[in-house]
């Protein structure tokens, strides 16, 4: 028997088939597909029906390969959602969290409800695109969607609903809305009411590892497949990625490295205090009641978006080529703060980087190599900064850093991260989210006893590369310069 994980990222998705032997996990990529957002006029949307189509393709490929699926689970990026009418039909195409309609909305909400109160209730970091501000933006724009809407489902909840016909809210993703209260272990209905969002949209919450339906009859007929159980996993991809961190003990730091870089640690309880509020750390729900104390760092998005800009100008570069150019460029000539809001929305990233450098009195990178070098060095520096903040907040000292996710294919970034933090980096597995998704399904079926057995098996099954720090003095000096430039 095998199981299937659908892992949907902000630029691509995949269907990964998992098999468990006595001691090892085996993962096979059955289907991979693009997930390109679609700009329509001023709005940026996800192509949700295409994603559902690709999920069906994954199911068909499993069938054609003769697999008997024990269960399936879906994880995706957080914060985004669909609205459904009273007949259970999707209203419109979900907005992309990088759509500009949330600009300035967070501050408008604070005028009504102070940030400190929102944080005390939810423990979630302030990102302008959190679900709470997206809903507020729709309300503010008097969107007709809100008049018609009867239910609200996060992206994996929505796709799961398409598959099963059942509506549930999965816990890990629900926490990212900034409308969930970890103390009450439920939606914060008071907060929802204060914002005048309909409380009836927010139904009961299910936890990772719960069976939440099976493939509905119409889809079974359409694809000629049997009734496969559908499981709630850590449906927030970062939750699944952290479940797959091959840590040896409870005290570990991780960096989930993809379009976003998510850095932090796993704890039994959320850290909701003034310090966490000031540093803008988050407490996202994880598996088996754990919380991820972490911070979002803009991540490889800046490089992906730069590459798109260069492609628009006529040439598509492979990431390996860009990394090679970065190695040839001189070291530490310009820094950016990757988390400056000017890098959040789609646009001409190389031009934005030049503008940032000029504004901060630096020489702007002109060549591709210098631009890529600036991005990767700045990311490594921001990792160092965030690593220290995580240690402070968690009151722990970490021996090194686990890196998981597709970003670890960028070996230069792994090495520079190790150089920057002055500690070893253990990089792997690259398919963290899919593996964490599979692991939760195996724990639910009893084939793995718990997350620690799962992490041991993951460590034995997948490649993990160690990077030791190099050139410590140069990186220390450059870090001081980075702090001055970015005023962190
Ligand atoms: C990473 C991620 C991250 C969220 C962002 C919207 O894919 O889920 O954890 O903050 O997307």
Automatic annotation (TrEMBL):
Amino-acid biosynthesis is among the record's keywords: no
One CC-aspect GO term: cytosol
Keyword RNA-binding attached: no
An annotated Gene Ontology molecular function: ATP binding
InterPro entries: ATPase_NBD, FGGY_C, FGGY_N, Rhamnulokinase
Domain Carbohydrate kinase FGGY N-terminal: 3-241
SUPFAM superfamilies according to UniProt: Actin-like ATPase domain (SSF53067)
Superkingdom of origin organism: Bacteria
Gene Ontology biological-process entries: glycerol metabolic process; rhamnose catabolic process
Keywords: ATP-binding, Disulfide bond, Kinase, Nucleotide-binding, Rhamnose metabolism, Transferase
Residues annotated as domain Carbohydrate kinase FGGY C-terminal: 253-444
Similarity-based family: Belongs to the FGGY kinase family.
Protein known as: Rhamnulokinase
UniProt source species: Paenibacillus selenitireducens
